[in-house]
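Go through this:
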Amino acid sequence: MESALPLWFEIGSFVVLIGILLFDLLIIFKRPHIPSAKESALWVAFYVVLALIFALLMLLIGDAEHAGQFLAGWLTEYSLSIDNLFVFVIIMGRFAVPRKYQQEVLMVGIILALVFRGVFILLGAGLIASFSAIFYLFGAFLLWTAFNQAFGNHDDEGENDSWFIRFARRRLKVSSQYEGNKLRTTVAGRRMFTPLILVFIALGTTDLLFALDSIPAIFGITQSPFIVFTANVFALMGLRQLYFLLGHLLDKLVYLKYGIAFILAFIGVKLVFHAMHENELPFINGGHPIEWAPDISTWTSLAVIVGAMVVATIASLVKLRMSGTTVAEAIHGDSDEDDEPETETEAAAVDGTQEDPRT
């Protein structure tokens, strides 16, 4: 599909988005802190409004099809990013990252996610251009992923060390405590890494695995690399603020995984239908397109994606209400993780000066 969007718009979009990400990164490193619920909500709202404005610009400068593809892709990637965020929460707890520095850690995770997804976007675009039957493989992969998402056991996801983390523990000299946001420290005259290096490795490997799901999913909506990449950027921007806004509520959205699984399954079926409609494989229908295979429209995809997430979220909140837990209680959890430490022990944990046996 040849893009109807002018080159100046695409280049300008990349410049503005990179500028916003750099500004966000500068704020984090200049003023590390635990954002309040109000601050997090304002930032999340800002990025959502920014994505909607971008879609409007695509409608005015391009056409409705491009705007619809962006919205559907953005919502798909946003839902998958929330699933990604749930694993981030587990990793933060697993490595006992001080809350004061979790913003910086999350930003590194987001940057790694952008890098990995950028690489997969280029690879995916190249495969599509040279091998149209790749849609069969993308579709089958998403259907398998959807099944695993809905019926697989994710209870220990992120809680146990991967083989790569175990390898890093053996090969790297890692201290037992955090030193603020530093990666290197000196212990008894020896230069060592702080536990942050293990956190970054865990986030990186997680980002890599999630990129394998997200890129085929969005290529099922659009084949425009520009729309694919910008949808990913907008989905990842504001993710760290969403982390502090939702808090423990993520663990209570029990039906969210089914909503995400339904979206992945739908896009998987759409990809298979698209591959059948454009079929060139000689052993399928003699190498001719299968005419009866429907070509699902962008707006149908958008409606299905929105509907699945709305139903999954409402169902989760209804179950939460029936259990006697309010949304506010779910967000803050049952722990004593307050913004301001009340004891010297808690203060030491926030500053990263207390040794944690789990690291």
